[in-house]
Amino acid sequence: MEHISKKNIDSMEKIFRLNLINSCTGYKSANLIGSRSDNGIENLAVFSSITHLGSNPSLLGFVVRPTIVPRDTYSNIVSNKFFTVNHINSDDIEDAHHTSARYPAKVSEFEMTKFESEYLKNFPAPFVKSSNIKLACEFLNEYHIKENDTVLIVAKINDIFYRKEYIENDGWLRLDKAKTVAINGLDGYALPKLIERYKYAKPKKNE
Amino acid sequence: MEHISKKNIDSMEKIFRLNLINSCTGYKSANLIGSRSDNGIENLAVFSSITHLGSNPSLLGFVVRPTIVPRDTYSNIVSNKFFTVNHINSDDIEDAHHTSARYPAKVSEFEMTKFESEYLKNFPAPFVKSSNIKLACEFLNEYHIKENDTVLIVAKINDIFYRKEYIENDGWLRLDKAKTVAINGLDGYALPKLIERYKYAKPKKNE
Fold it and tell me: Shortest CA distance to A130 belongs to which of A178, A77, A193, A172?
């Protein structure tokens, strides 16, 4: 096997390190966060760090860098509390990736991409119409990660929207039926296919 | 679309909520964490919350529940500082899932599964021999998430091991070449295939 040491990583060329470190932890979730500014401008941005935090209460977390522009998503969420999380499906990856372009705050990514916003059940933040699984979320707290000056956002999952054919009897959403993608590194989009679902693991008896 | 409201989620049957909330945020990374106790017992456990935190310094994060047994991984990492992160590949999913069975701390999951431990470059924690991408990590800090009494572990990625055929010229590891899987919910294992890799997104000029 090839080996890259701590010393190699620390002295590495910046783009090489960005690609390597972003891809070495495995696949990441692929979501678009929809939010609105105080002036009513809709914002849409791709995030690969959204992660399950717990199911009771129903919580998710994601990481932002508030010290680096563009930080529209962060400021919208902290000031307005409500935002949406929209799964990216395989038909939408090119436009989803384009939301990472650095537009000024007054430009809505909904205008610069094919995505259409929609408002559901009076929730104050925009959803992505073409997304197959969508969450209405509420900001709860933020934790400053001092090791690299990032912030972990903790939010409550309030509402879930999905098509009936994705869900199984025990509440599990089968993501490959929704064509939800996964992210490899900063810029690779991959389509997973279910191999197997296992039962709750119990210890083997010693023979 | 189907709609599940906040009220539905809060009053839902426990297992249904576990499956729904664990699957609604998208795919998760699939890794085995290898660690060692003070008594030298090797521990191996599947984790789906490992996420990229930043590339300079090279950091990852993951979530643990130290208040709930089994917590062997957590106590080993906090007391011994060093642990490994090993990608799960599609040939190993059944045994990887079995590491979630609740064995007593004195039982090593390496003995109860087909996985073999190996020690590389004098690193003090065990790697998984059959894993195709492996990280040597060092505990840096922990943050208590008070909203659900979990802990975010922040760690430095010190060393990376991989096969040469996975890496591209710009440092990007192509995960489908390593047969790395992604996790859907608590117990679904999916194999992704790369669709496309995009360039750094730049704003479109207004016409």
Answer: A178
Model pTM?
0.97
Helix extents (H) in B13-100: 14-23, 72-80, 93-98
| pLDDT at position B69 over 80 | no
What per-residue confidence (pLDDT) applies to A207? 46
Q: How much is the ipTM here?
A: 0.96
Query: What are the two backbone dihedrals, phi and then psi, of residue B80, each rounded to the nearest 5 degrees?
Result: -110, -5
State the sign of the Cα–Cα–Cα–Cα dihedral A162, A154, B72, B80: positive
Q: How many Cβ pairs within 8 Å bridge chains A and B?
A: 384
Phi-psi region of A26 (alpha: psi -120 to 50; beta: other; left: phi over 0): left
Q: For chain B, positions 60-99, list CB contacts with chain A under 8 A.
A: 60-61, 63, 85, 87, 90, 93-94, 97-99
Tens digits of residue pLDDT in B128-169: 999 999 999 999 999 999 999 999 999 999 999 999 999 999
Cα–Cα distance, A60 to A157 (Å, whole number): 7
Side-chain-side CA neighbours of residue B156 (13 Å)? 17
**Residue B134, CA distances (Å) to A3, B85, B114, B152 in order:** 10, 6, 17, 21
* Structure-block tokens of residue B112: 């109860």
Establish how many alpha carbons lie within 13 A of residue A144's alpha carbon, considering only the half-sphere containing its beta carbon: 4
